């Protein structure tokens, strides 16, 4: 049985309710980019991982294409080709981390500090 806190739809609905309060000066899209979670566990609006590319899925392009490892996404073959030298070692081993929201990265960093402090 899946717990409620593990269902992105419930979280994303809460984000929508927050947006409706109009207490945040940011645009709806900006809040969604920073807070909504996709089925893969990372951001709902993923960013192309091509070098220097900032195109967003669901905004700049309908759907990004997955690399063979299925963890990295690109808007074009050109972006995939340009990123390949950096990504190829991780792609073959399937060890490339998924994209995370800034808040998810911050939580990981804080957790790492606590674990390091606990273990020392």
From TrEMBL:
Name of the featured protein: MYND-type domain-containing protein
Molecular function terms from GO: zinc ion binding
One Pfam family hit: zf-MYND
Classification via SUPFAM superfamilies: HIT/MYND zinc finger-like
Keywords: Metal-binding, Zinc, Zinc-finger
Domain MYND-type per the UniProt entry, residue ranges: 48-91
Entries under InterPro entries matching the protein: Znf_MYND (IPR002893)
């Amino acid at each position: 049985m899946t717990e409620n806190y593990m269902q992105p739809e419930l979280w994303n609905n809460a984000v929508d309710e927050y947006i409706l309060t109009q207490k945040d000066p940011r645009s709806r899209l900006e809040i969604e980019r920073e807070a909504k979670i996709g089925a893969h566990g990372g951001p709902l609006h993923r960013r192309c991982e091509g070098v220097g590319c900032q195109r967003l899925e669901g905004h700049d392009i309908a759907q990004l294409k997955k690399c063979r490892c299925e963890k990295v996404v690109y808007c074009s073959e050109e972006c995939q080709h340009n990123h390949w030298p950096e990504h190829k070692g991780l792609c073959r081993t399937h060890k490339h981390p998924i994209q995370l929201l800034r808040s998810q990265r911050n939580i990981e960093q804080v957790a790492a500090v606590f674990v390091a402090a606990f273990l020392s």
